[in-house]
Amino acid sequence: MRAFHSSILLLAGGQGQRMGGQDKGLVLWHEQPLIAYVQRVARPLTDDLIISCNRNHDRYAVYADQLVSDDNDDFAGPLAGIRAGLAVARHSHLLVLPCDVPRVDGELLKALLRAAALTPDQPVMLRQGEHWEPLFCVIPTALAAMFEAAWHTGERSPKKIMLQLNAQPVQCPQNDSRLSNFNTADLLI
Question: Is 0.85 surpassed by the pTM of this model?
Answer without folding.
Answer: yes
